[in-house]
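From the pipeline queue, job 12 of 40. The input is one protein chain; the requested action is below.

Action: predict structure.
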Amino acid sequence: MSIVVFGVNHRTGPLSLLERVALGPADLPKAITGLVSLSNVREAVVLSTCNRTEVYAVAERFHGAYADIRDFFCDIGGLHPDELHPHLYTQHDEAAVSHLFEVAAGLDSAVLGETEILGQVRGAWELAQSEGGARSTLNLLFRHALETGKRARTETAISRSTASVSSAAVEMATERLGSLAGKRVLVLGAGEMGEGVAHALVKAGVTDIIVTNRTHERGEALAERVHGRTVPYAERQCAMAQTDVLVTCSGAGNVVDAALVHEARGGVTSALLVVDIAVPRNVDAAVASLPGVTLLDLDDLRVWAARGIEQRSHEADHVRAIVHDEVERFVVEHTARQAAPLVAALHERGEQIRSAELDRFAHKLAGLDPAQRAAVEALTKGIVAKLLHQPSVRLKDDAGTPQGERNAAAVRDLFDLA
């Protein structure tokens, strides 16, 4: 039984592929229950963000799980295995643990050290727990992953400066235009990403923020928090006519096409910068061909963010050291837990022998009063516990080592444990 990860991310696949395998919130519960129903998958957590779609699983058989999860990716993306293979990465055991810890720490993000991923990892784990996908092994793994991510951000400067896709998008727009001061910005989407964009715009000095969202009340609430205003989703076209910058981050898929932007702008001659940070993309690629319109997406953001990686490379080295320490700590706890069933079986056998012996001498103990009977119970339980204490400690301490395997085999044989 192995811990494995299968995935496609911004390093291994183009944005067009990430869009096809991305899973929205409504699709995730069904995906988790479907995965754990497979014969080779015992536990599963699905992490789907703008930068990656990954399945973390406890696999009964690695090769069987590989085929099952590969087919899962092919099904959700409508892909042939030959299309997926060049972009799919797989890791198992310590390498899979290390990968998740690097993801949680922000080392594997397009924006090095970004903070949003930690909440996304937590959310993926919590959903898997509620759907029955995460049990003892993945619960332990993800608890350690969150602890690693927190350590990385409190003990190093990895998340200082630009530390989220939302803030990076605003910084990229600022660099492109020179300044956002005095610009009118329309934010399409009021979810977690939209929230981040809106607050980053305020920090960038934008005083005219318009929010539009399918759920109008949610858009109103966000606009109020950033002292902006909102327009109904059906009127987003009118709002675009007076917009200098459009930032899209909705989970609704393609909602802005060339015809919509063309009609919105009409005779407007001023430039429009469109920044699309949604997966799947919100803006049709044809929008870029319209006069005066510049379209940037996550591919552009990744190129822009790559320039900042060098500046924080020394912090990344510190985070990698934390990841290494945390992987070792996880392995120790995980292997100790592997010994737990054998230790429990050993103590159960001891209790069976103790109870059987008391039953055998029941007629000789019949004359004992309750206090004397309790004393005999305590005495015999104490003897069994003391006899089994040292073997139990050795089994736990040596778990995961050749000596531990020899000890475990000897205990099973000596005490006739299955």
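Job complete. The chain has a mean pLDDT of 91.
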